[in-house]
Amino acid sequence: MDYQKLYDSIINKAKSENRKKFNGVYYEKHHILPKCMGGGNEKENLVLLTAKEHYVCHKLLFRVHPNNKGIAFSLHSMIYTRKDKRKLKLSSREYEEARIIASIYSEQRLIKMTNKTKEEKDDMYKRGLETKKRNKEAAIKNGTYVKEIRSEESRKKSSESLKGKNTGKQNPEHIKKAKENRRIKIEEKLASGWKPEKRFASAEAIAKRLEARKRNIEEKIANGTYIKKTRSEESNRKQSESMRGKTSWNKGIKMSAEYKLSISGENHQMFGKKLKLESIIKREETRKKNNEEKLKMGIKPTRKRQSKKTISKRIRTIKINKEIIRQERAMMIF
Questions:
Q1: Where are the beta strands (DSSP E) in the chain?
Q2: CA dihedral of residues 144, 150, 154, 158 (deg, nearest 10)
Q3: Rounded to whole angstroms, how far apart are CA atoms 200 and 205?
Q4: For position 9, what pLDDT does the model report?
Q5: pLDDT value at 334 more than 50
Q6: CA 184, CA 82: separation in Å to the nearest integer?
Q7: Interhelix angle for 51-64 vs 69-80, to 10°?
Q8: Residue 130: helix, strand or coil by DSSP?
Q9: Which of 19, 189, 215, 308 qualifies as a cystine partner to 194, CB 3.0-4.6 A?
Q10: Which tens digit of pLDDT belongs to each residue from 188-216?
């Protein structure tokens, strides 16, 4: 059978009818000379075919060029995409043929992908994203773009299937891999002579940040949208329970000389400032509360041994605070 002659007759018939889309008949664009064989998107190389004619033409092309991978794949995609519009009914022989084509193509593709380097794979991925973006922009310009919206049923199904599973960044295996990759990268950098730089925020940067924060709070208060962040007792209790028996992250780590300088003397953010009376009273109350809770649980509250200087300083501050409170109360009476 002359498959090429049959193919040409279908194409010539379609061309002679001067077909147009959206006239009550469903048509599909077809490349007369396939792209994999050097064909382009010129008007002379395009023709409108019915779904049936389109499928027959691709089948005939596969019969004419059985060793062409592109034509084989296009026939396979013709069968397994847009099923609802084409409504194809395949025989058992045709189905077997299509599956064999797909398996051969996928095997060859896998072999190609395994031989490619990481840079080539990344380049392929970038090109794919660029083509997707171009197609989307073209569809928006033409007015044919339709955003895919998932139905509630599909969302429910996906959420039910993922229940109890650690997916994405929450997956412990993913976290392990990420940590391992990071460690390897740092080791490679250190081997090449790289030294990590310790960066500390300057006093100006800290001041700017605090000013911006203060300004935002004032604006929110003026608008009436400010909500003070307060942690509930449950969250505090949960955190304390989770941290019980665990050693702190900085235990046994010595402070560097640079860091000591950054937090001492004039460099310290609290230098030249005094604690408010309210904050001192609040601190004492929380300390007392924590000690009471520890006693209830059967834990004796341990206090660090303080030097004579610190004890005398503390006694002096307490006396001063008491005197201030006494004076304030006296003023309130008068």
A1: 28-31, 46-49
A2: 120
A3: 10
A4: 92
A5: no
A6: 47
A7: 150
A8: helix
A9: 189
A10: 888 888 776 666 677 788 888 889 988 88
